[in-house]
Design brief:
Elements lengths: L2 E10 L4 E3 H4 L7 H8 L3 E3 L6 H15 L9 E5 L10 H9 L5 E5 L5 H15 L4 E9 L9 H4 L4 E11 L4 E8 L7 E2 L20 E2 L1 H20 L11 E4 L4 H11 L10 H4 L6 H9 L8 E8 L3 E8 L1
Parallel strand pairs: 4-5, 4-6, 11-12
Antiparallel strand pairs: 1-7, 2-3, 6-7, 8-13, 9-10, 12-13
Length: 320
């Protein structure tokens, strides 16, 4: 079994910035209402950038950061629930534009846990010796699937992409990964597929917006994520207080503060950038990594943790 480390991180966001004050111009809300409940003050929204566009920019940034040539990549996984098309995959389309050839490329759908799930696959494949360098991208354009009259969702979600490269290493820096799912909660966060009538099925779905039961999702996240973080630390000789950085899915500041309290960890160890980026689903963890990486020191102990629709959740314990 080979060791694995993360080498190279990148992000990409649309140019247009939408503030809470902008939202208050067309829905019944306010900057105070949004910030108090979510910790979000602004977010970036696509005015034409596609999911593939953002994935390419984030991927290229990660390759440059890791000093890695496109032809060195032999595995590309894109985590997304807002692809530009189901065929071809975003991974194949992005690989073509990045000059990555002859790599295995596919998309993965695990919503806000997508980057963690995709990373687990990439790390496992590298450990087995099948691949040497994997590019994992989380990319979303959520603005195209939001109901912009639904205050419970449109103030939360946003667009962006983040990427990381995992490489074979003599020193293993990915110490543990634990993921899980519970289909009993599959109705709590949903995004229907837009369908059209045909000769054999005359029914037509005219709207395909995402839906979320925020109250139940809050309960789920604050219950399962702390337990999952303790699970990923089990058997490693480290405790939660030994961790230098917690990089969680950037869903809600109150969720993160609650998780810190349950773990009895200083909430300042939990990096947050949702105030200026909102909830970017599968992109949020690698985007956060890109924003905070300059503060990391060699040997820092880091927990990455995602949670979302499915229900899905998972954590990675790594050393920088």
């Amino acid at each position: 079994m080979y060791g694995v480390k993360m080498k190279g991180i990148g992000k990409a966001i649309p140019e247009f910035k939408l503030s809470n004050h902008d939202l208050a111009e067309f829905i019944d809300t306010s900057d105070e209402w949004i910030q108090t409940r979510t910790g979000i003050s602004s977010r970036h929204i696509s005015t034409g950038e596609t999911t593939t566009d953002l994935a390419v920019l984030a991927g290229q940034s990660a390759l440059i950061d890791g000093d890695i040539e496109p032809e060195e990549i032999d595995l590309v996984i894109v985590a997304t629930v807002t692809p530009d098309s189901t065929m071809p995959s975003t991974a194949c389309a992005a690989a073509k534009r990045m000059g990555i050839k002859k790599a295995t490329c596919f998309d993965l759908s695990a919503a806000c846990s997508g980057f963690i799930f995709a990373s687990e696959i990439a790390v496992s494949f590298i450990r087995q010796g099948n691949y040497k360098k994997a590019l994992v991208i989380g990319a979303e354009v959520f603005s195209k699937v939001l109901n912009w009259e639904d205050r419970s969702t449109c103030v939360l979600f946003a667009d962006g992409a983040g990427a990381a490269v995992y490489t074979r290493s003599e020193q293993d820096q990915i110490l543990n990964i634990v993921t899980a799912s519970d289909g009993e909660g599959s109705d709590l966060i949903t995004l229907p597929v837009l369908t059209k009538s045909n000769r054999f099925n005359p029914n037509e779905v005219s709207e395909a917006y995402m839906y979320m039961d925020g109250r139940e999702v809050y309960k789920f996240a604050t219950t399962e994520v702390p337990k999952n973080i303790l699970d990923v630390l089990e058997g490693t000789n480290y405790a939660a207080n030994d961790i230098d950085w917690f990089i969680l899915h950037q869903a809600n500041a109150r969720i993160m503060d609650s998780i810190a309290k349950k773990l009895q960890v200083d909430k300042e160890k939990f990096f947050k950038n949702m105030d200026s980026h909102g909830n970017t689903s599968a992109a949020s963890i690698p985007m956060a990594l890109a924003d905070v990486k300059e503060q990391f020191k060699p040997g820092d102990k880091i927990i990455l943790s995602g949670f979302g629709a499915g229900l899905t959740w998972g954590s990675i314990f790594m050393i920088w």
